[in-house]
Amino acid sequence: MVNLIEIKELQKMYLMGKIEVPALRNINLTIEKGEFVAIMGPSGSGKSTLLNMIGMLDIPTSGEIIINGIATSAMREKQRAEFRLKRIGFTFQFFSLLMELTALENVMLPMMMSGENNKDRALILLKIVGMEERAMHMPNELSGGEQQRVAIARALVNKPMLLLADEPTANLDTKSAEQVVNLMRKLNKEINQTIVLVTHESELGRKANRIIWLKDGMVENIQNNSNFDS
Asked: Which fold has domain 35-59+74-224?
């Protein structure tokens, strides 16, 4: 397998007054193309911080993150923004759909920002996530689980090499949460989508093929899920 992400001696410090507080300490990881990885750990362990570093939403204090052979720390902000738009899909616990746009229009937004206008691609993605019949509905006409499905379709519309999901089920009921993570598992298996998921729910984390456990900003354990292909 080929590594999509290489993380080397990653550290992130935040300044709280005059005191430096470590959020991540000496993280060394690799994530292969086509993997579905869950990042887990207690509150404050650095899960979301690590995801933000991988997604270039924040900059490391030291260390290196290499994505598809590209050293991201060497990029300027404009390069990082373009890389995020075209190569990385994001979905968060707050669906962040524009309420004045239909589900279809929300999915098409990142594509239009890239200078494309491929309605057929957006409709195909809505079909993949089971939302084709709701394409012309407004977000306030959709349930939370349906909105998250639309958000996942939107995250995939630019054909990203990497999908990052930060607590995407936190605002969903148990059934909807399981459906969303099952959808991610389906995307991983059927289109070989590389996914990194942050979750605090162990049942959902076990749906990934590997769990990276963080504690106090460090990797505590890496657990392989032997039942992933079943």
From this structure: Rossmann fold (3.40.50)
**Gap between the Cα atoms of 54 and 191, Å rounded:** 21
d(CA 33, CA 25): 25
pLDDT of residue 20: 87
pLDDT of residue 103: 97
Give whole-number Cα distances, 33 to 6, 54, 69, 82, 188, in Å: 11, 14, 12, 21, 10
Token pair 């959020």 is at which residue?
Answer: 23
pLDDT at 89: 95
Interval 186-220: pLDDT, tens: 999 999 999 999 998 888 889 999 999 999 999 99
Strand partners, 163: 89, 195
Cβ neighbours, 10 Å, residue 230: 5
Q: How much is the pTM?
A: 0.92
Total Cβ atoms within 10 A of residue 71: 12
Q: What is the DSSP string of 74-124?
A: GS-HHHHHHHHHHHEEEEESS----TTS-HHHHHHHHHHHTT---HHHHHH
Dmax (CA) for the chain in angstroms is 55
In sequence order, what are the residues at sequence separation of 6 or more whose Cβ sits closer than 8 angstroms to the Cβ of residue 199? 38, 39, 40, 167, 168, 169, 181, 205
Q: Which residues pair with 10 in a beta bridge?
A: 27
Q: Where do the domains of the chain lie? A: 35-59+74-224
Instruction: Please choose, from the candidates 203, 223, 228, 200, the residue with its C-alpha nearest in 3D space to the C-alpha of residue 211.
Output: 223
How far apart CA 209 and CA 64 sit, in angstroms, is 24
